[in-house]
Amino acid sequence: MSEKILMVDDDEAIAESTAIYLRSAGYDVIIAHDGAEALKMVKTHDISLIVMDVMMPKMDGIAATMKIREIYNIPIILLTAKSEDGDKVLGLNIGADDYVTKPYSPLELIARVKSAIRRYTQLGAVKASAKASANEVIVIGGLEFDGNAKRVTVDGEDIKLTPLEYRILELFCHNPNHVFTAEEIYQRAWNEDVFVNDNTIAVHIRRIREKIEIDPKKPEYIKVVWGIGYKLEKAKKISSIERKGT
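-> structure tokens emitted (246 positions)
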């Protein structure tokens, strides 16, 4: 069964032509023409990924992304105009996974879609089992990263991360004290060789901090190494058996 993609654009010609390219790549595509219609479809269809224009009537792509992120962890790729740099940053801030600038190459969009779905599936976010095995859990103060259960908690409370946020945190947790440049983070979390820009990484780091830090402005976990990149302070690893015995 092919993955189902929700294409959202108020321009019917663009929506239909993009759907044709995505279908030719093997995806099942349904179309919505504004954010409000997209919300309804997300609730009634098993969607694997959303491609959504920013500028739309009734409810634009930014507002729709915010609403979807309140409940769903589906990958979202925003379509923005070259002049809409503010929308790109805002979109990433409120939970979009990626963006493609109009006018875009269909091949570029398909590549981004494939990459986003691959990351999402690898994380077990699609119908994943929540069962954890008795292997090691990475513990950093009050932060626990359980890769088997695909679960992150802070002081015992579950933290909801997008697929990209999870992959970035996973990279840090498995490489404590290692300093990663923004380019290295992008290549390993996005699993792509072509680097976008430092700002994309900075936005995702900020969102992770907002979820795991007591005071995101004074982070205890993810630190900036000025002029180089980011690192996670040294982590302590314990097994789930040891954790039960404490």
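Residues 106-122 form the longest helix (17 residues).
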